[in-house]
Amino acid sequence: MTDFYWPHLWLLVALLGVAIVDEKTRRIPNATLLALVFLWAGWLVVVAHDRGAFSEENGRMAFGEALLLRVAVAVGLLLSFGALSLWRPRSIGMGDVKLMSVLALYFSPLSLGIVLYLALLLTFLRGLVLRRRTRERKGLAFAPQAAGAVLIVMLWQGMLASG
C-alpha cells in the first residue's frame, strides 16, 4: 500500500467539481485544471522530493527520472489527443484532453493507463444505458467517468488510506 498523498485528495475533490460542471455545461474549466497543476507542482517542491514519493510507484527509478517520465507522458497525451481533437472535434473535446494530461502528472504511467481504461469503459457503459433509455445519440461528458475511475484506482491502490 502507498502512503496517503495530499495531491490525490485535492485531485479527487477537484474532479468531483469538474464532473458536475462538465455534466451540466459540457465544459471543463481551464482555471481548475491549472490550479491542479500548480497544487501538484507545489506539493512536488515542498514534500515529494524529500519523501521520494515517486520511488514506490516507479520501482527503482530515481526521483528526477520519474518526474521527467510523468511530464513527458502528460505532454505526449496533450499532443496526441489534442491532434485527435483537432482532427475529429466531435470525438473528444480539448477539455477532456487537458484533463487526461493533468491526470498524467498525478499517476504513474501504469496507474494512468488503468484510470484511462476504466474511464473509457465507464463512458461506454454509460452510453449504452443512456442509448437504451432515450434511443438518441448524443455526446457524453467525460469528466464524471474520469472522476469515477480515479476514485476506483485510488481505493484499489490504497491511496486514500493512511498506512
Give me the strand/helix succession: HHHHHH
Alpha carbon gap, first and last residue:
7 Å
Q: How many strand segments?
A: 0
Helix content: over 70%
What is the 3D shape?
Answer: globular
Mean pLDDT: 84
Describe the structure.
Helix 1 packs antiparallel against helix 2 (30-51), helix 1 runs antiparallel to helix 6 and helix 5 packs across helix 6 (143-157). The protein contains six helices and no strands. By secondary structure, the protein is mainly alpha-helical.
Helix and strand arrangement:
Elements: H1 6-25, H2 30-51, H3 63-87, H4 94-106, H5 109-134, H6 143-157
Q: Could you list some keywords that capture this structure?
A:
single chain; 163 residues; mainly alpha; 6 helices; globular
